[in-house]
Design goal:
The chain has 78 residues and is mainly alpha-helical. Helices cover 71% and strands 0% of the residues. The chain has 2 domains: 34 residues; 35 residues, no CATH class. The longest helix has 16 residues. The protein starts with 8 loop residues before the first helix and ends with a helix.
Length: 78
């Protein structure tokens, strides 16, 4: 989908420089920006990411410590 967005000159110039440094088209930079913003600010996306980390199994972590950490995280309001 095409969307017209107005950017301040300095932001546009920074995006151009970044695109050149990464050897990608400017459009890729412009598509990544809202994707990253949503990933950082959408509570459901943040919760899913935290759940993936919390559900990883590390055989070296004491089961009691894992359970205690999970209980502590469940008491925190995100």
């Amino acid at each position: 989908m095409r969307t017209a967005v107005s950017l301040p000159d300095d932001v546009s110039e920074q995006a151009e420089r970044l695109a050149k440094r990464r050897s990608v088209h400017r459009d890729e930079i412009m598509a990544d920006a809202p994707r990253e913003y949503v990933a950082r600010h959408d509570p459901d996306v943040v919760t899913e990411a935290l759940n993936r980390v919390a559900n990883r199994k590390d055989p070296d972590v004491d089961p009691w410590l894992r359970a205690a950490a999970r209980r502590a995280l469940e008491r925190v309001e995100w």
